[in-house]
Specification:
The structure is a single chain. The protein folds into 2 domains: 12-19 and 100-150 and 192-371, Aldolase class I (TIM Barrel, Alpha-Beta Barrel), CATH 3.20.20.70; 156-185, no CATH class. Helices cover 30% and strands 16% of the residues. The chain contains 10 helices and 12 strands. Helix 2 (57-71) runs antiparallel to helix 5. The longest helix is centred in the first third of the chain and has 15 residues, at 57-71.
């Protein structure tokens, strides 16, 4: 079962009132024909994918989920650009296959104040390898948790004798005659996706402000994330919690789907990114994603203060945000804990000091950042 804390929260009702190409050209042409689009853009994405389309979000998400799944045959969803065929089981750097899994689905109240309470859906696996990852194993392991199956077959129970077909609506059991054998079809078991959507809808009814899709990193499971969105109410406020390491292809498929991008800017230089998360060319990629997100949605940027990394990481991050994204909401988080493999690095073996936290605040004030809690 997907782990859910909804029913275990102390009086959940108390929340109420708080209130491009990349190999897609052929698929895009086929989609454009189905969607009635006249042409395909030079980037290879059908004009029908434009976020200004009059179609509902759920319809757009369902159409894009099909395109995203086809893209797994030559995967370039993140900036590693592995190009592996995940549909055939070929592993890329994230080791994810074609099927997404969920390691957590529950109400959360520890995120940004304007987003909580949120119903958080965490997909297993990630394209980065941050040694200080707070969720560790499930975030790195794409096989952790429960499969997000889209369909579930009805259970069948048979017995001797004849029976009159008596179909009933609403998921009730019914019987049928098959070669002289009475066949009873029990109520169809809900798929993993259907159970998840029921939980999300209940959370919204109980006062959740938002639904957040995160990981690991959800970009590597973009087809599944879009399938989830397609099944959610169109008026739900959706948050895309990301490490901002997605590709241009992924951004095109996400355009107009999420209301808020909650993006990490973890490192201020490529050397720290390579040493602590095994990712090259980090700064350029994240900056590109943040600039795009700011133009296409509401953007909130997170930075986790880490001991020994205030000057080398936070200082350049703050300076760039002030210059290129003035006024953007920034959450400066000081709750670093030496989790997972953090102790592989001497400077990450303890929480951040008070002196470093105060220095980080001084930097934020110097650049007049729009800090939010």
């Amino acid at each position: 079962m997907i782990r859910s804390m909804i029913s275990g929260l102390p009086d959940v009702n108390a929340f109420k009132g708080i209130a491009s190409g990349f190999g897609l050209r052929r698929e895009a042409k086929r989609h454009a024909a189905l969607a009635g689009a006249d042409e395909v853009s030079k980037s290879g994405v059908a004009a029908a994918l434009c976020h200004r389309s009059p179609k509902s979000r759920s319809v757009l998400a369902r159409e894009r989920a099909r395109i995203a799944r086809a893209a797994l045959a030559d995967c370039h969803l993140c900036e590693h650009h592995c190009g592996v065929n995940r549909l055939a089981g070929e592993p890329g750097l994230c080791h994810a296959g074609a099927e997404a899994r969920i390691f957590m689905a529950q109400a959360e109240v520890s995120d940004e104040l304007e987003l909580i309470p949120t119903f958080a859906i965490a997909l297993s696996g990630c394209d980065l390898r941050c040694d200080f990852c707070i969720t560790g194993g499930p975030s790195w392991n794409p096989r952790a948790g429960e499969p997000l199956s889209v369909a579930a077959a009805p259970r069948r129970r048979e017995g001797g004798g004849d029976a009159l077909v008596a179909a009933r609506g609403g998921g009730a059991a019914f019987t049928g005659l098959r070669r002289g054998v009475a066949t009873t079809l029990q109520p169809r078991r809900l798929s993993g996706l259907e159970r998840l959507i029921r939980q999300a809808e209940q959370a919204l009814a109980d006062g959740a402000r938002t639904i957040m899709i995160l990981g690991g990193e959800p970009t590597i499971h973009l087809p599944a994330a879009l399938e989830i969105v397609a099944a959610l109410p169109d008026d739900a406020k959706l948050v895309w919690k990301t490490n901002a390491h997605g590709s241009a292809q992924a951004r095109e498929l996400l355009d107009g789907i999420f209301d808020v991008w909650l993006a990490d800017f973890k490192f201020g230089n490529d050397a720290c990114a390579q040493r602590l998360a095994k990712v090259p060319d980090y700064v350029r990629v994240v900056r590109e994603n943040l600039l795009w997100a700011n133009e296409h949605s509401e953007l909130m940027v997170r930075h986790l203060l880490m001991p020994g990394h205030v000057e080398c990481c936070w200082q350049p991050v703050a300076e760039w945000l002030a210059a290129e994204l003035p006024g953007v909401k920034v959450n400066l988080r000081s709750g670093f804990w030496p989790a997972w493999h953090a102790r592989r690095h001497k400077e990450l073996s303890s929480p951040i000091s008070r002196d470093e936290t105060e220095r980080a605040d001084e930097i934020a004030w110097k650049y007049k950042l729009n800090l939010v809690a």
